[in-house]
Amino acid sequence: MALKDLPPDSRPREKLLARGPSALGDAELLALLLRTGTAGRGVLQMAHELLAQFGGVAGLLHASADDLKRFKGLGGSAKRAELVAVLELARRALAEQLRERAALDSAQAVKDYVQLQLAGRPHEVFAVLFLDSQYRLIALEELFRGTLTQTSVYPREVVLRALHHHASGVVLAHNHPSGSVQPSRADEALTQTLKAALALVDVRVVDHVIVAPGAALSMAEQGMV
């Protein structure tokens, strides 16, 4: 059914303006972004299909522009650009939250931010969040790609980047494309290696966060840092 055929109080735009965004379901909010469907498929149906294909809102936020291009109805650039822009805005909003509050007081915000940045990657990525003396975010840098071992992540490079940012602490982060966020023995060994290297320059390893689509684990919360 086309949006124009819905009762006025059931149309997403009117419903949002009258009752607020919390009154709308995920598909209705997405339909407002998409605006139009395709031949024989209304925009609400398209929104439902898009969420189903990518595993809900979280999965959609992890989708790349190339992933979206393969979905029927998003072959053009305009709608894809808008969805990618929403992802970037979400990342920036989380980054602002981390800059405004102490990282140690907001473990969930750190996990959410890392998940948005890394969870959807098809390959393993190792990143570091550099923190100031109040443990607020200075920057996030992706430093290494590929299977993580003590030999594939270079402590010297991590130390140099920490000194460059004048960081007082760091959060280590990487993704598991397999979907499991349980730390491996290599993850544990790498954490201890970097912890020892950074301690030599008085930089604290606050946490090591592991993410996958729809999941995140804090090694600090597990008593492993």
UniProtKB/TrEMBL annotation:
InterPro entries: MPN, RadC_JAB, RuvA_2-like, UPF0758, UPF0758_CS, UPF0758_N. Keywords: Hydrolase, Metal-binding, Metalloprotease, Protease, Zinc. It comes from the Bacteria. GO terms for molecular function: metal ion binding; metallopeptidase activity. Residues 103-225 form the MPN domain. This is DNA repair protein RadC. Signal peptide: none annotated. Belongs to the UPF0758 family. Gene3D superfamilies: Cytidine Deaminase, domain 2. GO terms for biological process: proteolysis. The gene is radC. It holds the Pfam family RadC.
